[in-house]
Design brief:
mainly alpha
Length: 154
């Protein structure tokens, strides 16, 4: 009984931690895109708005321990992983292009793009991967195994 209580408390603490991280990620995406970028494109704005909404919903749901919180966290993690991998790939390709075409000036731009990719990687790729691993472990623990099928004698 005590072990079940400790496990439930530990699981709740992890949910709270991921809720706080999701809300922090929503805030950082907002600051990075809507406050930090001098010129934006509708594709970047719509992706950022989607991530902000999903991270906000997942964070609030996990902190409030709502029944839909884990589904929201799953959606936010998958969307963040897709957007994060697209962003890092685009930044890497653009950095290599700038470095190759513009010589020393391009290498300076490539350095800045590399720093942006390094800053985005933890929040848009690593944390969502950890959250997906936690959600998968939680789901595996909550699924009740089916009883074995009776053997038929022929």
């Amino acid at each position: 009984m005590v072990d079940a209580t400790k496990a439930a408390a530990r699981e709740r603490a992890v949910a709270i931690a991921f809720g706080v991280v999701d809300l922090l990620s929503a805030m950082l995406v907002y600051l990075g895109v809507f406050e930090g970028l001098p010129a934006r494109h509708w594709l970047v704005d719509s992706g950022a708005a989607l991530l902000i909404a999903l991270f906000g919903a997942a964070g609030a749901g996990l902190l409030a321990d709502t029944p839909w919180a884990r589904r929201a966290a799953l959606g936010a993690s998958i969307a963040s992983l897709v957007c994060g991998l697209l962003l890092v790939t685009t930044l890497a390709l653009t950095a290599s292009y700038l470095s190759g075409i513009y010589g020393p000036v391009g290498r300076g731009g490539a350095l800045i793009l590399g720093l942006v990719a390094a800053l985005a990687l933890p929040y848009l790729v690593a944390i969502p991967l950890a959250q997906l691993a936690w959600l998968g472990r939680w789901r595996a623990a909550s699924v009740t195994p089916a009883p074995p099928a009776p053997l038929s004698r022929s």
